[in-house]
Fold these 2 entries.
Entry 1:
Amino acid sequence: MASTVDHVIEARWVIPVEPAQVVLQHHAVAIAAGRIHEVLPIGEARDRFPGARRTELPAHALIPGLINLHTHAAMTLMRGLADDRALMDWLQNHIWPVETRLVSAEFVHDGTLLACAEMLRGGVTCFNDMYFFPEAAARAALAAGMRATLGIITIEMRSSYASDAGDYLSKGLAAHDSCKHEPLLSFCLAPHAPYTVSDATFERVATYASELDMPVHIHLHETEDEVRESERAHKLRPISRLLNLGLLGPGLIAVHAVHLTPNEVGLLAEHGCHVAHCPSSNLKLASGIAPVATLNERGVNIGLGTDGAASNNRLDVFAEMRLAALLAKGASARATVLPAHAVLGMATINAARALGLDDRIGSLTPGKHADMTAVNLDAPELSPCYDPLSHLVYAAGREHVTHVWVEGKSLVEDRRLTLLDPRDLAAKAAHWQTRIAN
Amino acid sequence: MASTVDHVIEARWVIPVEPAQVVLQHHAVAIAAGRIHEVLPIGEARDRFPGARRTELPAHALIPGLINLHTHAAMTLMRGLADDRALMDWLQNHIWPVETRLVSAEFVHDGTLLACAEMLRGGVTCFNDMYFFPEAAARAALAAGMRATLGIITIEMRSSYASDAGDYLSKGLAAHDSCKHEPLLSFCLAPHAPYTVSDATFERVATYASELDMPVHIHLHETEDEVRESERAHKLRPISRLLNLGLLGPGLIAVHAVHLTPNEVGLLAEHGCHVAHCPSSNLKLASGIAPVATLNERGVNIGLGTDGAASNNRLDVFAEMRLAALLAKGASARATVLPAHAVLGMATINAARALGLDDRIGSLTPGKHADMTAVNLDAPELSPCYDPLSHLVYAAGREHVTHVWVEGKSLVEDRRLTLLDPRDLAAKAAHWQTRIAN
């Protein structure tokens, strides 16, 4: 099949993520029709695929595209609107009033487009989203050329998007239906949180998840208040409630998972649930520190999420990698936990597994789609370089990303977006800033 | 004195840091002979200083140069050499053997020069250093045009630099003497740590500090082991030991200050001691989380440090600002502590105060030296911008720094270093990497 290889990307280092810890020196990735055909030494690639287009990355690490396992992409429009506030003050007095007043399909489209630009420039090729008007987010992701999993959001509260939980579900399912032929898009059920979703709605979510074979993406055990409120209203902690409702399973992506008893860690492990760890957001909103070292040791699959830009204030998976690695060490008092390669795995293959996409993305493995990110490690702040894996997590930042491809298509080239126009994005951001600030 | 203004820097926002929380829109800083002459509206500056050179920064925040209150600059050469290891394994099996084998004046000069390049590109204009061969670090800082406080390091162990504590002190004092006419350099006493310095040496340090009116810079209460070892050897915790030795006072910069009893927080406050908070290093080495919210509420003056690049692995004060703000919220369970403006104060005026340099640097105040950093806030990942102060801490990174001045002299211009040559730095780093890795 050598004749089908149309593009060869040569890099100083290729880090395939699977197998873990492997760093291939002076290797190339050969791409055929948007898929990874082979990973091989540069010299061999030049001999075998002389007719293919060639991209040379002489000081770069080539890695799988990063995956943001939890975000509310459109909330970029509220980035930095209200910092340094307690969670409920932040939500009730700042975020929710803006959402009530302004959120629309256009808002979601424009905010998500801005998020895509930010994420792509930061080496993120796929995001798992939860927000109103998912069909508008889908349009933005497609315009940006990004891969996305869109949440079929469900919440009991009326909004400009839907009137009640059933209306959310049917609108989300319709969005899913209208996008089913888009190869870059997938969907998950996204019941908002234990305190905003009823048992009856959770049961419908469980039914759809099973019928449609979709993951379920939910904020879970984020704050002590959430757990206490559940104990008051349901006489159960949220995880036990979801267990009773049949929602704990290998399709569940538990976002945050900060406040867990050892028994709850065991339940997540036993049922094959995934965790979307969002360290920046958990710290910024003072929710706490998730017991990531323990979850990891118990075999729970953990990915990384940025949460929305209103509580982070970045959609920066490099920042989450570094913080996850540092925080797990500091919180567990063990400097050896979450080594660099494990954290890079969280941001790639683990997240792909949580989304049920690990047959397609998450590692540089022949047969998978060519979703890839190149990071230039030639800079004074990255010098010297003893171990590129260490640099990716501890020293480099998203600003060192130079190239990004999704399905082999170039979306960032020498740090420039190929499909999106920064001036158009700036104009959209300015438009919404004026309306939000008013 | 209008005639003496030779340069006017116009910015979208000028954030003087003193007074706190002030954000001046469309203001300019007028500079005369390397000092800040006046901060005033752009239009007024154009009228009053028509002959001065003009720099326009239409999307930028102009802030005081950041100050790195604790580093071992030359350790850039060991960046990423040995990650994910416990502190004593890291020191004894990786860092100390390299230091024993290779550290020399040339090593320190080259490593410090690389550190200066990294720090300048990240908006840092001044650093407080502790390492062997401080005269070599001084030469590098001067070559880079940076301001530095150099530690007169003292430790009981023989090294390639000095044979015993007395030898360290006399060599450091000689370095101080040889640099005393350099306006950008100052010195402090730098007894390494409670577990490596004897009572007799601490007494000499206290004497010199008092005679020479110099700050004292020491690793203090970094780990539980350090505290336990002191209790075993001295029947005292380190802070109580330093109190007895006369070292607690407004000249003391306590680096790390992670493991503190409420009584010890009180002692630091009562004696006017300063803390150099190094959140990345404390997490990465699993030392713990410093009680910064409490220290701050008790009135202890806190600055930020990166520590060395071998345990961070960045000399990035933007990263420390963000982490300090997030971690204090997460660890104290209060989202309102350490708001953005307070953290920017830590990285500027507070650190200047700790170094005894607050009459010269740390804020954009007429009469102070023009040590300044410009941050371009026009990027998709910084858009929209409701509050530039928030963006500086939560959303921006060192990559958004475009211009840096020290005493009005341009050291970074459109992200390019004006005095240092990146190719030369890369060659030096490669040279040492080969020798270290062997």
Note: The radius of gyration of chain B is 21 Å.
Entry 2:
Amino acid sequence: MAGMPAGDLQLTPESARLLAFLRDEGPRTRAQLAELSGSARSTVAARLEPLAAAGLIAAAGGGVSSGGRPAGFIAFQPGARILLAVDLGATHGVAALTDLAGTVLALEAADIDIADGPVAVLDWVIEAAERLRKRLGRPKADLAGVGIGLPGPVEHSTGLPTNPPIMPGWDRFDVIGYVRARIDAPVLVDNDVNLLALGEHATVWKQEDNLLFIKVATGIGAGIISGGRLQRGAQGSAGDLGHVRVPFSARTPRHGDANADLEALASGPGIARALTSIGVPASSSRDVVELAVALDPRATAAIRQAGRELGEVIATVVNVLNPSVIVVGGSIARAGEHLVAGIREVVFGQSTPLATRYLTITESHAGEAGGVIGAATMLIQYLLDPRDEVHR
Amino acid sequence: MAGMPAGDLQLTPESARLLAFLRDEGPRTRAQLAELSGSARSTVAARLEPLAAAGLIAAAGGGVSSGGRPAGFIAFQPGARILLAVDLGATHGVAALTDLAGTVLALEAADIDIADGPVAVLDWVIEAAERLRKRLGRPKADLAGVGIGLPGPVEHSTGLPTNPPIMPGWDRFDVIGYVRARIDAPVLVDNDVNLLALGEHATVWKQEDNLLFIKVATGIGAGIISGGRLQRGAQGSAGDLGHVRVPFSARTPRHGDANADLEALASGPGIARALTSIGVPASSSRDVVELAVALDPRATAAIRQAGRELGEVIATVVNVLNPSVIVVGGSIARAGEHLVAGIREVVFGQSTPLATRYLTITESHAGEAGGVIGAATMLIQYLLDPRDEVHR
């Protein structure tokens, strides 16, 4: 993630903390907020004032649908601003406008080709955003931020794509600068797997502080939530499962290369190569998914074996990070239960009992909107969450 | 880590944030603090008042050694309280009193036997604390907290040792309750490797947010700092490197068991078994260290091979967590450069260039006090660091 503070909602930490409480716990009176925060009523009033001025809070009970709540309650207003949340894949793009709670208000999906380069793809994003905004009838000034997920590594400190293997023309392209020149709002960029982890955490597994999201498609990568926070590592390359070497003993004889990494074996193209080698022609993730959906037993067996190979690496990660939930997504996971079954078989057999006793391994159910909900979550954290700084 | 809030210094988040600033950045005037925090002078004064009342801050320039700083500067007073920091190993215990900056003021080390059980060992801790306190001439009321590191797994939510393999009699013993009945202060308990990671981070690598501390002795474990925070995982078992299965291809022929875990191969006793199998009798970490210090080439070769086996597992962790620093400690690491050399050989050969370009792998130089500095760091974070809660 990288962003520009200008255009930020510029909340003080004290106001942001009160807002976070109203977001998480629901409407409260000024008296309740004063008691809960141990502050004077006048102090609470002063901290609420900028939130009210920005439209982020309002009296609950005045609205049409509020159901007769007693007067004096103050409620978070998620509709006060809109966010542009974008998920770009190799061949598919989704742009959505959400509110400040991450609820999708309008969405546009298109077949794009990421290899057309950043200008063509980002121009589609900007035009789609404009269409969506007009559809909702919201003024430009309502847009509080832009979050974009890319299908490749992104340098944490700058937001620049860094040697993205499937994104010709994008290497070190200034995505933030290009979009900001056209949309006047903070722009954040991250890789798609990190955003899928954030989205899954925010929507399905909010109570779990230790979650691993693993995407298996043309590539293999992971997004890591540990201690309640997305972990990017020192250079932003954390979660790179695809380039871990798989133990030789874990593989079927078809895989002779002792130096093969996980992606070469267990990604969509890796499974396609394994199928081709046993006389079932396949060349892409899409081919593999089609065979599996048609219940070809050779395809389902190959996917399960890929799950086992993934499991060999995930078993180590489970011992090291002790997550409570592992969510598996991507096209190969969506082709049936075979991938997750193979992962479960190895992880529950190999990791320590202490690390697996309360471990859930499951498929992602986020669907097409998972990536954009993650992008919205990243923006909401950036714009609204309290930060621990004396000076902000 | 688990603790009891009673006896806490009970700082409000706002006061804690000002204190954190003075701790990190040094003395400032009220006017500077007001400007930096964007608050009114009166607000800053109100937040400083409880810090002054607790003795945690005082006017700088009034002291003998202040060197003529202009009047009006306010400084953190690390000597306002003392902390009891304890590091317990299998056969060795260290108890120290530190100030609120983690500086060791007095220390006592003893040969203990953790297998004597919790009552005998903790009674030594309590008696040592009393001797140290009297040596410093500080009243009991000055002790603000107790931090204890144990050589085994500790359940995060309760502080209870959980099936600790080398600690007979300690399983689910209420360490916190036993100590608190004798010392009236908050008590925190964690495993020793987590504390070694915290201590190394606080003293040597403060600017690095992603650090891995690996201890290689009778057992093998890791403490993980990611995103600037110690990561414990869902049940507190994060960092369990010792029970990861080592790829068969990575081993020398001496290791025939395909299901052997890292600890069976690369710990002190594992290296001793390998040496015994080639006609060099050894049975413990201590034997291995003695042979290595005497420069026995078979011992140094066996330690280097253990480093390679560690490297096979660490290479995966590097891809997954993208740390910037790996610190290797424990008795086997202290026996020479052979262990770290073996780790480096494999990790720099196997992990991805993006993950290793800026990676440092080094020995720990913390020495005997490393564990107690970590215990003090845990306490200081608990007592003084701002927490993100409306209600505290």
Note: Confidence is low (pLDDT under 50) at residues 1-7, 62-66, 388-392 of chain A.
